[in-house]
Amino acid sequence: MRKTYRVLGLLIALAVVVQASAIAFGTFGFINEVDRGTVFTPSSDAPNFGPMLHAINGTLVIPVLSLALLIVSFFAKVPRGIRWALLVLLAVIVQINLGFFSFDTPAIGLLHGANAFAVLGLALTAARAAAREAPVPAAAAVEEAIV
Amino acid sequence: MAVKRNTRVIVGAVATLLILVPLAVMWLSSLAPASYSVMGMGRAELGGGPADAVHAGHDDHGWDGPPPGAADVSVAELTGPAGGEPDVAVQLVARTEQVQLAGTRDESIPAYTLNGATPGPVIHAIQGDLIQVTLTNESVPDGATLHWHGVDVPNAEDGVAGVTQDAVPVGGSHTYRFVAEDAGTYWYHSHQVSHEQVRRGLFGVLVVAPSGGIAADHDVVATFHTYGSTATLNGAAGEHRHVAGPGESVRVRVVNTDNGVLRAWVAGAPFRVVAVDGREVNEPAPVTDAAVVVAAGGRADVEFTVPADGSAARVGVGAAELVIGPAGAQGPASTPPTEVLDLLHYGSPADLGFDLARPDRDFDYRIGRRPGFVDGRPGMFWTINGRMYPDVPMFVVSEGDLVRMTIENSNSDNHPMHLHGHHAVVLARNGVRATGSPLWVDSLEVDRGESYEIAFIADNPGIWMDHCHDLEHAVDGLVAHLAYTGVHTPFRIGGPPSNEPE
């Protein structure tokens, strides 16, 4: 369970990197098309799979991974494991909301970009918390030593 | 130690169930059966009007809906004229094929064609004509229908798969017959898997001229459609020209077949918006530096006179342009005007023909958005009056009712709302009453944060869709129905014909 917790934390961190890569790909795709004279309308296809990957990874994959991390945290003996998992989930929920509000108010996109690092940092911290064995309670350690 | 560990596991398991069980319940309740009747969907809303036996029992009958009342008329009987030679008879053959868009050097794209072309042929008729169109499906694998967008046809001719007919399978055909009672600009498109079939080109335009003939010297159709990432006018990319002499009058019929809003304007000559959604504007004033917003699915007819000095006028239609003037004449350089014409305060008022003080039905159509599941798919989805598809409202009306409806958009996207079979007059936007020519619409653009009050007479019995015409939203569940008492539909969503209207 502890290893699963760690792997999930690392997967979430990786997924955040995928998010940044995908949206950069999409943005450069748009700029590239516009430079070549393509006109975009509300019904136009996106220039590449970047925006679609960002949407699916961001609204489906990352939330599922975050929920899985939380559920695993109930059973994994990770110091403050539940707390970190809850924080990751909270940061993800905030991130998705910021994303949807940004379509209407692009300035909110500034927060969406910054909060991505919070998600990444929290996921890595959670993974790191699971890197070592949970410390055995002092009394039991002394008991074992005596025996 | 062991006790403490067991407690921890139990608490963990309970917490897990508290997360997973509600999600599973939401997922399960979002699933629709393989075949169901739209009469069984969601909840009946009576709008303050009288309950009838059939719809009052709506919620108890599950996915098959309530059984038909003894005196109920079937949608299948609400057809156009059964006999009589048609004044306009058209054969349309629908095919799946690769199309090379004119005006581009791009590779060919997969498309749906009607008689080998997309858009399909423009159908011309005169007010009062009996129109007969036979649709043959040669190779559209999902089946196809034709819906007459903006034409208030008898219900059985409405072309909605699973509600007014079964989708026409490959090798099959279906004949539509209706009288063109109202002059104006309309369009026709498939209403089977419409989000995909309209995008890929299964549509065309219908122009009904008034019985006295078209007043302008030139009558030009400007159909805007985005194929993939190519913006086109009448199926072709690039610059479009129409030759017209100085001083001649031109009527341009702008048709928006996309999912998003478009702006239309004329540079180089003052223009008037003479019709919206097929209904004439009363005493339209000349406009010089503003654009008219055309909702997805909507039409706007603009009229202007070619400048006397030999120059051309440039008509902007969304991302496309149409230069109209003498051969070789250049239009002015034109950037889209920033100002938008407010159609609620344009033209002169006229009598509506009914007294709004006491509507027979008063409905709310509140559009929201929240996370959830639609048919097993998770995502951020639309809600109508607080509930998500398939728990959508069935607005119940009786023939002759005066219906008032308030449409509110409280979420982060715009919604072009389309009511089949009827035109509604827009009374107010955000509480400010309309003061101009009565704006009769069938496709109303409801922007973020806006609310509209509309009214219409229930004078066309049937089961009618009332949905967002951003078809990507419709396929995610932003659909509702208007159901007349005394009408029952034998058609079903899904089933052997695989009826899938969105």
Question: What would your notes on this structure say?
Answer:
The complex is a heterodimer of chains A (147) and B (502). By secondary structure, chain A is mostly helical. Chain A has one domain. Chain A contains five helices and no strands. Chain A starts with a helix and ends with a helix. The mean pLDDT of chain A is 91. Chain B is mainly β. Chain B has three domains: 39-72 and 352-494, Immunoglobulin-like; 88-209, Cupredoxins -  blue copper proteins (Immunoglobulin-like); 218-341, Immunoglobulin-like (Sandwich), CATH 2.60.40.420. Helices cover 8% and strands 41% of the residues of chain B. Chain B is built from four helices and 38 strands. In chain B, the strands form eight sheets. In chain B, strands 24, 25, 26, 28, 30, 31, 32 and 34 form an eight-stranded mixed β-sheet that branches. A six-stranded mixed β-sheet of chain B has the order 2-27-36-35-29-33. A six-stranded mixed β-sheet of chain B has the order 13-12-15-20-17-18, with no helix packed on it. In chain B, a hairpin with a 2-residue loop joins β25 and β26 (387-388). Chain B is globular. The N and C termini of chain B lie far apart (59 Å). The interface between A and B is medium-sized, with 22 and 27 residues.
Along the chain, the helix and strand elements of chain A come as HHHHH
Largest interface: A-B, 22 and 27 residues
Count of helix runs of chain A: 5
Shape of chain B: globular
> CATH fold name of the largest domain in chain B, please?
Immunoglobulin-like
